[in-house]
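Here we describe the complex-level prediction in full. Unlike the single-chain runs in Section 2.1, the two entities below were treated as one system.
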Amino acid sequence: MSGSPILRLLLAVPGLALLILFFLLPLGAVAWQALAGDAIRRVFAQGDLLAALGNSLLLGLEAGLASVVLGVAVALHLARLPPGRRALLQVVIALPLTFSGLIVAYGFILLLGRAGFATLLLAELGADPAAIAAFLYDRPGLVLAYSYFLTPRVILTLLPVFANFDHRQTEAAESMGASRLRALIDILAPQVAPTVLASFALVTAVAFGAYGTALALVGTQINILPLRLYSLIADAGADFPLAAALSVLLLAVCSFLMAVAEIAAARSEADHHVRT
Amino acid sequence: MSVVVDSLAFRYPAAGAGLDGVSLDVAPGEFCAVIGPSGCGKSTLLKLIAGFLSPAAGQIRIAGTDMTGVPPRLRNLGIVFQNYALFPHMTALENVAYPLKLRGIGRAERLNRAGQALERTRLSGLADRHPRQLSGGQQQRVALARALVFAPGALLLDEPLSALDAAHRAAMRDEIRAVQREHGIATLHVTHDQEEALSIADKVAVMRDGALLQLASPQELYDRPADRFVAGFVGHANLFDATVCGPDLVETSIGPLACTTEGRPIGTAVTLLARPEAVRTDPPDGAVNRFTGTLVRDRFLGSLRRYDLAVPGGTILGETLSRGDIRSVQIPPDCLRILPA
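The structure predicted for the assembly as a whole is:
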């Protein structure tokens, strides 16, 4: 880069202005609203809000865990395929990433709702449609729907790491007397663990803060933090300081999870750089 | 303990490559090198012996036990891979101790034994380093120590020297041989480097297109190659297309050559082999198999000089210690070997 410092500063002005106007200012306002009054105290005094926080954390962890378990298995399989078939499957797998949460919710309602296609098929086998719908319209249903669009994210972040892993290492371990499983646990697992952890933290953060799918699928019947926040803002005569406090809480948890992801990713990156 | 491979066959599903009925044996303490151009099946042979591939037919016996179909972990083989396949998340010491850990040996005991193994390969000062902090030669030594620490039945080496530069390769070659002798272990060494194979092995297997062409000592392989391909692949060679045209006389593109035709009938198509070091410079006038020509290439290699003499109808490759001008050469009849066409 060349040019005088003043010119460079001038060039940065539009970007800085945008950042201040649409990021720092609103964020500051929310934080100020949350911290100025007694809103934070009120959140912790209100049992149902704390329960919402707990439910959201549980939902995030469950969806994150389900996606990572599924994603690791699929990525392991994809990594062993020839590149051509792998690329084709990757396209198919990436497709759910382009769907909006609303569409995902609608799809699951068509499939597993009270009059859903799969529900009716299962009903023919003697299952109770109401039970299936109850499953869909509660936390298990959300875990399922979230995993649907989180698993591809896990797969796409893990695949390069798995595909680049030198399988002669596990072959070497096997030749020394390790079973296939033992070789995976002793040799592959420690090397991919940081990336898997980063991926888990990332999708957990997404699941923790997501609300589109939840709103479309279960409405505001389920007590989770993003939906409580949504009702607070959407309702007339809203309690804005309380909404701000919830926002700060949501932001804090997500930031923490993202920090975990970043640190884990940085560690694996550093490892990789020294190695090559 | 020995390694015996009997009529081993394998075919890759996609390509036509594979292995067609290869048989060879490595006796206890013996060092056998397998050479051949890429795609000849030498790496496939190694993978079959290691158990990473399953043969379509044939048998693999290690220390007298039929190991065909037995998983790799139960074959008790030490393997050094082409890229060493060291575990990057473990130190050199932990790498060497890992096979002992798999055998349920306690931490103190296995670290002690791994430490001794590293000491034998002059790496004790580097025990706490990770593979990425070691040079290629050091990684190689760790890989070798790791492959031998659990006293395996046999040692398999998959082009272990190909990642090293020329200077380290020769030293490492001697080191591998010394360690192998010390352990008295049957060793199968796969390489594409014929010079490496000749210098290190008790016997050499030459492969091509999935078939074993010849299994012999380095000297026999060089002096009495089974066919034209082996003759050309192992060492430098003059190879002439020839036809038997009389008792102990053949016709070639550079003219008639006297040599022993071993009673082949007139008209038989053969290949004539003359090693370049057998070609004599400045023979007396009237000597048999004497050729006059012009020097077209002249390479001074220090301990010897390799030259191409263009003669009517072809070129003769020779090696000499002489530094003088070369105008004529002789291929002594007893240095010409007759091979199938």
